[in-house]
Write a structure and sequence with these properties.
The protein is α+β, with helices and mostly antiparallel strands and about 1450 residues long. It contains 46 helices and 58 strands. The strands form 11 sheets. Strands 22, 23, 24, 25, 26, 27, 28, 29 and 38 form a 9-stranded mixed β-sheet that branches. The protein has a 9-stranded mixed β-sheet with strand order 45-46-47-48-49-50-51-52-53. Strands 13-12-9-10-11-14-20-18 form an 8-stranded antiparallel β-sheet, sandwiched between helices. It is elongated.
């Protein structure tokens, strides 16, 4: 038959009686969507045009706002009242009125709503409108579950025991059954239901005959459940007759799809297996039903056909059976006189378009003339032969189809319905999987809608093939929005052994849900980590949007707002464990997440669809989710969807979903038990109970009928027993992702290795300059360690060729700093408040700069450390091929032009100093110095040697002067040698210096040598002089000749002898060892002569070609052996920094030695204490007005030097204390003995300001003591030692030193305040402090802080508070006092133990003067000492705690307890 060209032609050609063109879709959601799609498809396939049909939709305000798909598909729509379906889609008068107004030809009812109301077909018939379904009388008789069961048992169809057993009736002429038997088969009250349940036996199913789709049906196992079920069923389907049947256990739910025409024919389109049900709501549907034999199922089909034909059934309907596989018995359940949701399964196995078949039946086309039906029977669709639908065999399908419903339900909460917006649905169909959805992009599910919004179908040649195709299709669905959906759960459900083996029954899924035996497979700690990443990203994103909005409105963000872009805290709860993540933002899209001792680094990039790609190590995951009232919902593709609940007050009872409050189940103030239902809510047309997790008195907060959202407060609870509330415990232990990371103790070195390998040190530092945080993975070294690594990491810096690369990186970093600060620096001078008004760019650009500027102090520290490291490293590559990059020079010049104010002063000064040095390359400087030496008369050489003019300072350094010791011009050579000696002995008094030309000395010396002699006195020594002698040799050959022939000057005593060797080739390896052997042999041969001359030391200076000179020290005190610890030091440096005195108590291991400083690791002779000594000397004059700034600069330089070596192998796994000693040699001008206490105050203020500002750094470097040695400007100068230590809370003490008049060594120290005298043992061996350092190491190894450090921390914090309100010199002197209290007998008495305590509970009475309370306020501070008996506590600790607490109560002051212990002491642990 040729394709019909019009609807009229098709109807006429197929024996139809009427044309139905305009169709009113009296439904919404899935039903409306599927009907329009199916009928349009049929029209296009059969008529060649989908425009032959016109669809008019009904659309409520709720569906319009939800962007429902069916409204878009329809040709037009009529807006109907919102709210419950009785207002719209179930409102029969409204439907008929619209049908009349729109002059439609027919009404398609779908399922649910008014589809089973006989009033609709009756009203349509009266209005002359075709109803696409059964007639009103038939619908009334068969559509009613009670009437259909009466008719079924009247027709001898087996039925399950029910309350209407034995009742029979004959169908009347109008298609109904008599009223009397119908009423007898209805339950009228709970009491009647209770009696029936006892008769037929529990468990039972209570049903509303007009219910469906899971509504109006409850399973009840006892009288209590029956009572609740009765109330819920009557509320869900108001006015519907109620009946009861016995719950048939172990049964399958099979159904037959029927379609009847107006000529008395009825076809059975095979059937479906819908046994996978939850609360009688179908989840999976499949066909054909393979559990039943084909012949047995065919008999069930025929019985269903006979029942329908006996009443003249027209349209689509379904007969449902319970099937017992073990007996092969079918039991009539009900007949649904409507199309069902799962009809596409039938379409998939029969090829029949069921909605289009409904339309054709409505047009009067006989079943046997419908092309799809004829194809189903294997007949030619163009012919018109008769079909006997009871006897003729159809073509049994060769395909199996399984369907899954996609619903807005939460599988983690017993499939409770959810509602809300849906941003998008992504589903890729395939030849074996297809589906349709009732919502489009940016749609939603409203509270009055059906929960189902999608249907997925999968097919295959066998059930197993179809099952796998369904799983794959479900895995590929992506639904983003506020609602929950069970697709991931369904994937796991379809993979269960029972479903694979097809051994399920109708109670199977409810059992699984109750047992919670189906769980998504995921790695919990992976999911928690990804959730933390998502929440951190969302927090930063929201904060960014908030700040940008403020900038657009002219408001600058607060510093606290900007800090939230740098670091946030993320709390998550899962399985009663709280995960507290500290998140540092380390870059624009990089984060470091720390929990406990574990830090994980992640790159987080947002995609256009709002999802995130999270990369951690080699793993990448796509993460999506949103913050909801109930918590954070997270979906990780390929894993699972999890909601991390908001941590709630257990006394608050809140809604888990959107809905309407139906009623409270207990009076206000009534007692309820834990787990008892307290309220009923209506959602998605279903009544659901909510239960209280705890027992108590319930207090109502709303009234019946109130609309509630998820998270809304429904009631409060006066807890009966708060101690029984389940507590959420904090996470402890090691956090491990599914892919293992490096162990914690290797993480820092591993991270550094990665930085070097990836050449990303500069990138990390640049991120910090832009306001981001350094990763905690770097450990104590922090960003400072990274900066140090830039110039000292293997492969990054250190060698000349790598140094150039480091300079390139430095140039980029300086440029980054300048780009961030240029705008703000330009505002200084009056425009500081005009940031928004003066900024030329957009809000996003300004925010980036504000974020960087908010961390200016950190950035300045980074740049300062960078420039100091660069300067230090530059010293060791002078004369090499390293060139200063143009961009670095340009950046330094711009930085040099920055204002002094605004925090830029320190880096501007460093840039200025570097420019002075770096702009004078070595060869150019050498020429200028040579000319200067030539022009300077010898009498002016002392002045020249001690010149501190910044522009000349480097020219007279020993490194450069040593290059002239082989000059061919004797005058230049002589002057250079004198300057060399004069600079070596700076700080000493040089009385005279001259050359020696006596014959006996000159003749016996190697040719070309120069001899100098001078007299000198050590610093502070008067009345005694010493003799010095130097011989300058042109090369190593002359040094070898010296062994054979050398006569010292005739002076009776020569204290110090210097051998200066020019032009020594750079020595390495064996050659270097040969040099040392040769020098040692020379000195060994001179020992008798040296002893005769009463010499103290011989210094051999080797002037290496191309690099700085080195020195070999031979001293009488060392048995004339070379002292390797001094090898790179200048001759006088060990004496000036008092290393010999330190070596009496410590064995020294050199870390780094420079021209004026030394860094050593000292190990006490008893091996119990380790200290890093940073000791240096300064020749820069210092005044009273510059003392504090000079001390601060020197301390920061010392910090840098120590920090640089924290990663040294020498310090690996060591925790030494740190001590700093600074010796300023030029006397402080205009000072006398009366200024000693004032100097003490200035020094204390400088140290305390430093500790206050850089407290974390001081703790990290474990600085325990700071000393400054200065000279009072008396005649002669008086040495004064200023000492501050953590043991004294960084208070300072001043000691006047008494010198040995012969050697200049200090022999005693007198306390300026107490006049008490101390000897060298007391001063140089800090016994208590080193003991405390050892204990401090014990505490830190245990992950804690030593208790005796806390008063200092309090003091530091208090000083920071003062510095915010006033200048340092305005802070009260006694702003912080701490008195240690110890237990003696039964009382606490004041007793300063300073770490010598034997009780593991320490107490202080502290007075703090604050800006708000300048008179001071007291507190009692109590803390555990973790170093006493491993932190356990016993009776002494308990008594100390009790006494201290009582003291605080008696004084009415706060008691602060710092807890860190190992629990009660059970044994005699002493370590």
């Amino acid at each position: 038959m040729a394709l019909a060209t019009s609807l009229e032609e098709y109807v006429g050609a197929h024996g139809g009686r009427r044309v139905l063109r305009r169709i009113l879709i009296a439904n919404n959601g899935m039903a409306a969507t599927k009907a329009i799609l199916s009928m349009r498809q049929w029209a296009f396939n059969e008529l060649g045009s989908s425009g032959e049909l016109e669809f008019i939709a009904m659309a409520s305000k709720d569906d319009l706002e939800a962007n429902a798909e069916f409204i878009r598909l329809a040709d037009s729509y009529v807006e109907v009242p919102p709210g419950k379906n009785v207002n719209n889609y179930a409102n029969v008068p409204l439907i008929v009125e619209i049908a009349k107004q729109k002059a439609v030809d027919c009404v398609w009812p779908g399922w649910g709503h008014a589809s089973e109301k006989p009033e609709l077909p009756k009203a349509c018939a009266e209005a002359g409108i075709v109803f696409l379904g059964p007639t009103a009388p038939v619908m009334h008789a068969l559509g009613d579950k009670i009437a259909s069961t009466i008719l079924a048992q009247s027709s001898k169809v087996p039925c399950i025991p029910w309350n209407g057993e034995g009742i029979t009736a004959e169908i009347q002429s109008d298609g109904s059954i008599p009223e009397e038997p119908f009423k007898r088969a209805c339950l009228q009250s709970y009491e009647e239901a209770k009696a029936c349940a006892k008769r037929i036996g529990y468990p039972v199913v209570l049903k509303a005959s007009e219910g469906g789709g899971g509504k109006g049906i409850r399973k009840c196992a006892n009288d209590e459940e029956l009572k609740v079920g009765w109330e819920q069923v009557t509320a869900e389907v108001v006015g519907s007759p109620i009946f009861m049947m016995q719950l048939c256990t172990g049964a399958r739910h099979l159904e037959v799809q029927l379609v009847g025409d107006e000529y008395g024919n009825c076809v059975a389109l095979i059937g479906r297996d819908c046994s996978t049900q939850r609360r009688f709501q179908k989840i999976f549907e499949e066909g054909p039903p393979t559990i039943a034999d084909k012949d047995d199922f065919r008999e069930a089909e025929k019985a269903a056909q006979r029942l329908a034909m006996s009443v003249g059934y027209r349209g689509a309907g379904t007969v449902e059976y319970l099937y017992k596989p073990e007996t092969k018995g079918f039991y009539f359940l009900e007949l649904n006189p409507r199309l069902q949701v799962e009809h596409p399964v039938t379409e998939g196995i029969t090829g029949v378009n069921v909605p289009a078949l409904q339309l054709q039946i409505g047009m009067g086309v006989p079943l046997e003339r419908v092309p799809d039906i004829r194809r189903f029977y294997g007949l030619d669709p163009a012919e018109a032969t008769k079909i006997n639908f009871l006897d003729d065999k159809y073509l049994y399908p060769t395909t199996h189809v399984i369907a899954a419903r996609v619903t807005a339900e939460n599988p983690d909460d017993a499939f409770r319905p959810t509602s809300g917006k849906i941003e998008r649905v992504r589903f890729q169909s395939s030849p074996s999987a297809w589906g349709y959805f009732s919502i489009g992009a940016n749609g939603g599910i409203h509270e009055f809608a059906d929960s189902q919004f999608g249907h997925i179908f999968a097919s295959g040649p066998t059930r197993e093939h179809a099952r796998k195709a369904l799983q794959l299709a479900l895995k590929n669905i992506s639904i983003v929005g506020e609602i929950r959906n069970p697709t991931e759960y369904l994937v796991e459900l379809a993979d269960t052994e029972e479903f694979r083996n097809n051994t399920i029954d109708t109670a199977w899924l409810d059992r699984l849900i109750a047992e919670k035996s189906v769980k998504m497979k995921f790695h919990a700690q992976d999911m928690i980590f990804y959730a933390a990443c998502l929440r951190a990203h969302l927090t930063v994103k929201a904060q960014t949007a908030k700040i940008l909005d403020g900038i657009k409105r002219g408001h600058l963000p607060l510093q606290s707002d900007l800090r939230l872009l740098q670091a946030v805290q993320v709390d998550l709860a899962h399985d009663s464990i709280k995960y507290n993540w500290q998140v540092s933002r380390t870059g624009h899209d990089s984060f470091a997440l720390t929990i406990g001792q574990t830090t994980l680094e992640a790159r987080i990039r947002e995609q256009p669809d709002g999802s995130l790609y999270v990369k951690c190590g080699e793993s990448v995951a796509q993460v999506s989710g949103r913050e909801e009232p109930l918590g954070l919902r997270v979906r990780v593709d390929g894993q699972a969807t999890i909601t991390f609940p908001t941590i709630r007050d257990p006394s608050e009872l809140r809604s888990d979903f959107n809905g309407k409050l139906v009623r409270y189940l207990h009076p206000d103030g009534a007692d309820i038990a834990a787990g008892e239902a307290f309220v009923e809510l209506e959602a998605m047309k279903m009544i659901m109970s909510l239960r209280s997790a705890n027992a108590g008195k319930v207090r109502h907060t709303l009234g019946a009928g109130a609309i509630v959202a998820a998270g809304d407060l429904l009631a409060t609870l006066d807890l009966s027993d708060p101690s029984k509330v389940q507590m959420i415990k904090p996470f402890s232990g090691t956090y491990q992702l599914s892919k293992a990371e490096a162990p914690a103790d290797e993480a820092v070195s591993k991270r550094f290795t990665e930085l070097v390998r990836d050449n990303s040190i500069g990138e990390m530092i640049a991120s910090c300059l832009c306001g981001f945080r350094p990763s905690p993975v770097l450990g104590d070294s922090g960003v400072g360690g990274v900066v140090q690594k830039l110039f000292h990491a293997p492969g990054v810096g250190g060698a000349a060729e790598d140094f150039g690369q480091s300079l390139q990186t430095t140039g980029k970093l300086l440029t980054t700093f300048l780009d961030n600060e240029r705008f703000f620096a330009g505002l200084i001078g009056g425009d500081e408040t005009q940031i928004i008004q003066r900024f030329p760019g957009g809000p996003d650009e300004l925010l980036s700069l504000l974020m960087a500027h908010n961390s200016l102090s950190t950035s300045v520290d980074i740049i300062a450390t960078l420039l100091r490291s660069m300067n230090s490293s530059w010293t060791f590559v002078q004369g090499s091929a390293a060139e200063l990059p143009a961009d670095l020079l340009k950046a330094l010049e711009e930085l040099n032009q920055f204002p002094d104010r605004g925090g830029y002063g320190p880096v501007k000064l460093l840039a200025h100093q570097l420019l002075l040095q770096l702009n004078k390359p070595l060869n150019k400087g050498k020429d200028e110095v040579r000319a200067l030496l030539a022009d300077t008369p010898r009498k002016s050489l002392p002045s020249l040697a001690n010149s501190l003019d910044p522009e000349r300072r480097m020219y007279f350094g020993l490194d450069l002067i040593s290059t002239f010791l082989a000059d061919k011009d004797t005058s230049i050579l002589t002057k250079a040698a004198e300057v060399f000696i004069l600079r070596t002995y700076r700080g000493y008094t040089i009385h005279d210096i001259d050359t020696i030309d006596t014959k006996d000395v000159v003749d016996k010396a190697p040719a070309g040598s120069l001899h100098l002699a001078w007299t000198f006195s050590p610093p502070g020594v008067t009345g005694r002089t010493m003799k010095g002698y130097a011989i300058v040799l042109p090369d190593l050959g002359a040094l070898e000749s010296l062994k054979k022939s050398w006569t010292l000057p005739a002076a009776p005593e020569i204290a110090n002898i210097h051998i200066l060797v020019a032009q020594v080739p750079s020595a390495e390896g064996q050659h270097e060892q040969a040099l040392l052997t040769s020098a040692s042999a020379l000195v060994a041969g001179l020992v008798p002569t040296l002893d005769a001359k009463k010499s103290a030391a011989v210094y051999i200076t080797l002037g290496h070609v191309g690099r700085v000179p080195s020195s070999l020290h031979f001293e009488k005190a060392s048995g004339w052996k070379e002292i390797p610890e001094y090898r790179t030091m200048r001759a006088t440096l060990p004496f000036l920094i008092e290393l010999p005195q330190i070596q009496k108590e410590f064995t020294m291991t050199p870390l780094q030695h420079g021209r004026i400083f030394a860094l050593d690791l000292g190990t006490s002779k008893d091996q119990k204490t380790e200290v890093v000594f940073a000791r240096g000397v300064s020749h820069v004059p210092m005044g009273l007005d510059t003392l504090q700034s000079t001390v601060l600069d020197d301390l920061l330089n010392s910090f840098d030097i120590i920090e640089r070596f924290l990663v040294s192998p020498v310090l690996d796994k060591k925790h030494p204390a740190g001590q700093i000693f600074m010796h300023t040699l030029p006397p402080i001008p205009q000072t006398t003995d009366r200024d000693m206490k004032y100097l003490q105050v200035l020094f204390a203020s400088a140290v305390q300001q430093c500790v206050a500002k850089y407290g974390p750094r001081v703790l990290k470097l474990r600085i325990s003591k700071i000393e400054l040695k200065v000279w009072i400007g008396t005649s002669p100068p008086t040495p004064l030692r200023l000492v501050a230590s953590s043991a004294m809370g960084w208070e300072a003490m001043a000691f006047q030193e008494e010198l040995d008049p012969a050697s200049g060594c200090t022999v005693s120290w007198k306390n300026v305040e107490t006049q008490e005298t101390h000897n060298s043992v007391q001063m140089l061996r800090p016994t208590v402090e080193t003991e405390r350092s050892s204990k401090r190491g014990i505490a830190r190894n245990a992950g804690s802080t030593y208790i005796y450090d806390f008063p200092a921390l309090f003091r530091i914090s208090l000083m920071k508070l003062w510095l915010k309100t006033c200048k340092a010199d305005q802070i009260p002197q006694n702003f912080f006092t701490a008195k240690e209290l110890a237990l003696e007998g039964d009382e606490l008495v004041e007793k300063e133990l300073f770490g010598k305590n034997t009780v593991g509970m320490v107490v202080w009475l502290i007075t703090m003067r604050t800006p708000d309370y300048p008179d001071g306020r007291d507190i009692v501070l109590i803390g555990n000492d973790l170093t006493i008996k491993t932190g356990t506590f016993g009776t002494f600790e308990d008594e100390t705690f009790q006494k201290a607490s009582a003291l605080a109560r008696s004084k009415g002051i706060p008691r602060i307890y710092i807890a860190c212990n190992s629990g009660a002491r059970m044994g005699a642990v002493e370590e």
